[in-house]
């Protein structure tokens, strides 16, 4: 029989490399913290209130009858500017109560990994202790292509235009509280979102990298996901349908927490009420320092440019509403 010391060595090695990854061993191109547009929580709630309605199809749940009680590893490939910073705070609060480990990745820049790093990444995540949640700004990864078990995916999205506006001003002015280094020149900081859209600047260009970010996060690491196309949209939808336990919408954050509690209470039991306790402080901390409301003309133009992301967003929203209905969650 192996001694306790012998058994603990591999675990220590795994945790060491996980820590190295999360503290930014790989080059960090840029960081994006989060401006939360989260509505206030409602009355006290318990996951025991969930009423499960059996269903057979795979269009709403990645597993039949939404059975995730045996899940021991969750990957939250968090989309920037969609409440993920608040989700991290919440998961930190829950990890002790619900007895799991939470691993936070500090590399916010590299979302599409070269093949060698991708192989190292999936191996590292696969070897993390269970039960655990791992978070990272990264496009969807298919672990099965590497012969490894797929973790249960979750994510949270936001209206694409609101997400884009939030990101635009955050990269110029940061948050109200925080000393983030700004990512734009003095000239760029003076340009409003209207200036960006109406003058077709690179951050608002119809064919630029910012117009299908949401699509990329769910499409994945394949070459088809690196350029805006309808094929990328359909791939993203299929990945959501087959591999994501829950993808919530920020505008219904309270319901998102209730759905998580209902399908994976081993991780998210008490999430909604914990959020009620910390929400006022978090919402104040995460606001972008300066955000100028754009004109309706700029909004309409940008909505058109974000048409791929809106297809994915609308698909997610419809699926999420069906999940809520099947769980008997009404708010």
TrEMBL record:
Family: Belongs to the sulfotransferase 3 family.
Superkingdom per UniProt: Eukaryota
Membrane topology per record: Single-pass type II membrane protein
Keyword Glycoprotein: yes
PANTHER family xref list: HEPARAN SULFATE 2-O-SULFOTRANSFERASE, URONYL 2-SULFOTRANSFERASE
InterPro entries: Heparan_SO4_2-O-STrfase, P-loop_NTPase, Sulfotransferase
Signal peptide region: none
Keyword tags: Glycoprotein, Golgi apparatus, Membrane, Signal-anchor, Transferase, Transmembrane, Transmembrane helix
Location of this chain's protein in the cell: Golgi apparatus membrane
Classification via Gene3D superfamilies: P-loop containing nucleotide triphosphate hydrolases (3.40.50.300)
Main location: Golgi
Molecular function in Gene Ontology: sulfotransferase activity
GO cellular component: Golgi membrane
Membrane-spanning parts: 7-29
SUPFAM superfamilies named in the record: P-loop containing nucleoside triphosphate hydrolases (SSF52540)
UniProt name for this protein: Uronyl 2-sulfotransferase-like
